[in-house]
Specification:
- The complex is a heterodimer of chains A (381) and B (201).
- By secondary structure, chain A is an alpha/beta fold.
- Chain A contains 14 helices and 17 strands.
- Chain A folds into two domains: 2-197, 3-Layer(aba) Sandwich (Rossmann fold); 271-378, Rossmann fold.
- The longest helix of chain B is centred in the C-terminal third of the chain and has 20 residues, at 162-181.
- In chain B, 36% of the residues lie in helices and 17% in strands.
- Chain B has one domain: Pyruvate-ferredoxin Oxidoreductase, domain 3 (3-Layer(aba) Sandwich), CATH 3.40.920.10.
- Chain B has helices spanning 17-30, 77-83, 115-122, 129-141, 146-156, 162-181, and strands at 4-11, 34-39, 50-57, 71-74, 92-96, 110-113.
- Chain B has six helices and six strands.
- The model of chain B has no long low-confidence stretch (mean pLDDT 95).
- Chain B starts with a strand and ends in a 20-residue tail after the last helix.
- Classes of the chains: A alpha/beta (381), B alpha/beta (201).
- Chain A binds chain B through residues 14-16, 41-42, 125-126, 153, 182, 185-189, 273-278, 292-293, 295-296, 299, 366, 368-370, and chain B through 21-22, 25-26, 28-29, 33-39, 41-44, 60, 62-65, 67, 197-200.
- Strand 10 (187-192) of chain A pairs antiparallel with strand 2 of chain B, so a sheet runs across the interface.
């Protein structure tokens, strides 16, 4: 289904927006009608924009007492039928880990925009980092899969906000837009389309809402008020939501399905982009803002005649290991620059046979192209 | 022909440096260009060397931040001193004639614009010095059209401040045009080509 622009949405055309503003507009375009949050640098512009834009499109905005309450309110709104989201940064994301686990276990579709800053803890509020990659993957306890996207431009803050809601609705899973301060605060030309693709959750109330017999692992999700007898619990539950906290088979089936419904659809979820890869001996694997620096460096090195290319990860979780493995085949070397101490590097190494080298920078600043130019050149001659 | 033009605007926090960047980028988009901008944030934006940078291109830019500016626009001495060292060898510096004393011996042309004095004496409103300067830069260099800049600036300010900003921009255009006419040397060729980074099919 596609949604034409309706009242309250910005008319299609070219704009000069910040990443955070674009993310808010993307959420509105795909039909987000509930926001609960607590402001935190460098994500606050998302909340600020939602505070005045949601009432314009007939939605609801709530400022909560903290980030735990924020995500709990988002979960409640989703079960009332809303397309709900919150936005935060590292310290708030940490607080959200408890309700995030609840959202995973109750299969609640929602979107969290984490505009990453330099951590750990309160770290450097206004500075950039990409240190929440593994937290997005493993932050809540227990075995589960989650979806996380990595935007590198203002356009993608809009496009991936749309995609995040669609993936959440499609797979009944929390989706994290893992942005970085440098993209959230970047201003760029962005083209707003006249319509966007919209996926709505299946609200059939005749089938069990937690059924493990669904062919693709994603059961329907009626809302409170739809007339279904709904039981929603974070404890282990059977297909109708009844607590089964001592039944090994129910536990096994539920936990297995929570992972399988994502992993079995990796081809549908995962997305990568490649540049200059055709005859490349050296493959740079990058994501987020760092990929902007890496692309600049790779294009320059191509001009010097070096056989260098780049793969950009648009999806971080589930990790696009098949694409990385296929593209990495036969390369002499794979290079992974990151604004952390090596979080995606290990995933890349698992996927390829050749040596992987990493460049880590955790000084609260973006990695400049000049640094990558030198680092890649030294490894490409 | 260049793939990108890089502009760094700088001054004291409070002079409206961040707004200048926003208006310049918006004007460029209205001219059909690609623009990317970043600026000082938080306490930096209120400090003594606030900066806002814009990259212009005819196609999507790969790296969206300034590498070595083609154009430095300085509205305070401290910011000028801090940022002039990054200016490209073939670059140009434009500075507020009343607030900045340029270093001697630099290879790049330095062009004075009396932006703050014009705002204070001609318009009785010091706060619009930023718009006087931005308009002067547009008229001097032609990086964005005067029409697009006027539209972008007037849409960026509250209705009650449109008239004073319009007068500031018009004064700035005149300053920029006369500065251009007074130059004894040609400005660099800042024509943009359409090269861009394309993903593999």
């Amino acid at each position: 289904m596609s949604r034409s622009r309706t009242e309250g949405l910005l008319p299609p055309g070219d704009y000069y927006l910040s990443g955070n503003e674009a993310a808010a507009e993307g959420a509105l375009a795909v039909g987000c009608d509930f926001y609960a949050g607590y402001p935190i640098t460098p994500s606050s512009e998302i909340m600020e924009r939602m505070a005045w834009r949601l009432p314009e499109v007939g939605g609801t905005f709530v400022q909560m007492e903290d980030e735990i309450g924020s995500l709990c309110a988002v979960i409640g709104a989703a079960w009332a039928g809303a397309k709900a989201m919150t936005a935060t940064s590292g310290p708030g994301f940490s607080l959200m880990m408890e309700p995030l686990g609840y959202a995973v276990m109750t299969e609640t579709p929602l979107v969290i925009m984490d505009v990453q800053r330099a951590g750990p803890c309160t770290g450097q509020a206004t500075r950039v980092g990409a240190g929440d990659i593994m937290q997005a993957r493993w932050g809540a306890h227990g075995d589960y899969q989650i979806i996380a996207l990595s935007p590198w431009s203002v356009q993608e803050m809009f496009d991936m906000a749309v995609q995040a809601f669609n993936l959440a609705e499609r797979f009944r899973v929390p989706v994290v837009l893992l942005a970085e301060e440098a993209v959230g605060h970047l201003r760029e030309r962005i083209t707003l389309p006249s319509e966007v693709t919209v996926i709505q959750r299946d609200r059939d109330k005749t089938r069990p809402p937690f059924g493990s017999e669904e062919p693709d692992g994603v059961p329907p999700m009626p809302a409170f008020g739809d007339g279904a007898d709904l039981l929603v619990t974070g404890s282990t539950h059977d297909e109708w939501g009844f607590r089964k906290t001592e039944d090994p088979e129910v536990q096994r089936r539920l936990v297995t399905r929570l992972s399988r419904k994502i992993l079995d659809h990796r081809a549908e979820i995962c997305s990568v982009e490649t540049y200059c890869m055709e005859d490349a001996q050296v493959m740079v694997v990058a994501y987020g803002f760092t990929a902007r620096s890496a692309l600049h460096a790779v294009r320059h090195l191509r001009g010097e005649g070096l056989e260098v290319g780049m793969m950009r990860l648009r999806t971080l979780w589930p990790f696009p290991e098949e694409a990385v493995a296929r593209m990495g085949e036969g390369r002499a070397r794979v290079l992974v620059p990151e604004m952390n101490l090596g979080q995606i590097q290990g995933e890349v190494q698992k996927a390829v046979d050749c040596p992987v080298e990493a460049y880590h920078q955790v000084n609260g600043e973006v990695i400049p192209p000049s640094v990558l130019l030198k680092w890649i050149r030294e490894r490409s001659l | 022909m260049k793939e990108r033009i890089e502009i760094r605007l700088c001054g004291f926090g409070g002079q409206g440096i961040v707004l200048m960047g926003l208006v310049l980028g918006e004007a460029a988009v209205r001219d059909g260009l690609w623009a990317a901008g970043s600026n000082s944030y938080g306490a930096q934006a209120r400090g003594s060397a606030c900066q806002s940078e814009v990259v212009l291109s005819r196609a999507p830019v790969d790296y969206p931040r300034v590498l070595a500016p083609d154009l430095l626009v300085a509205l305070s001495q401290e910011a000028y001193e801090r940022y002039v060292i990054d200016l490209q060898k073939e670059g140009v510096a434009v500075y507020d004639a009343g607030l900045v004393k340029p270093r001697g011996g630099l290879p790049q042309p330095h062009i004075p614009v009396d932006a703050t004095r014009t705002a204070v004496e001609g318009l009785s409103q010091k706060q619009v010095a930023n718009m006087v300067m931005l308009a002067a830069v547009a008229a001097l260099t032609g990086i964005v059209s005067q029409k697009a800049l006027l539209g972008a600036a007037l849409d960026a300010v509250p209705a009650r401040l449109r008239e004073i900003n319009q007068r500031a921009l018009e004064a700035g255009f005149r300053l920029g045009e006369s500065a251009r006419e007074g130059l004894s040397y040609p400005l660099p060729d800042w024509t943009l080509c359409e090269a861009s980074a394309r993903a593999d099919a």
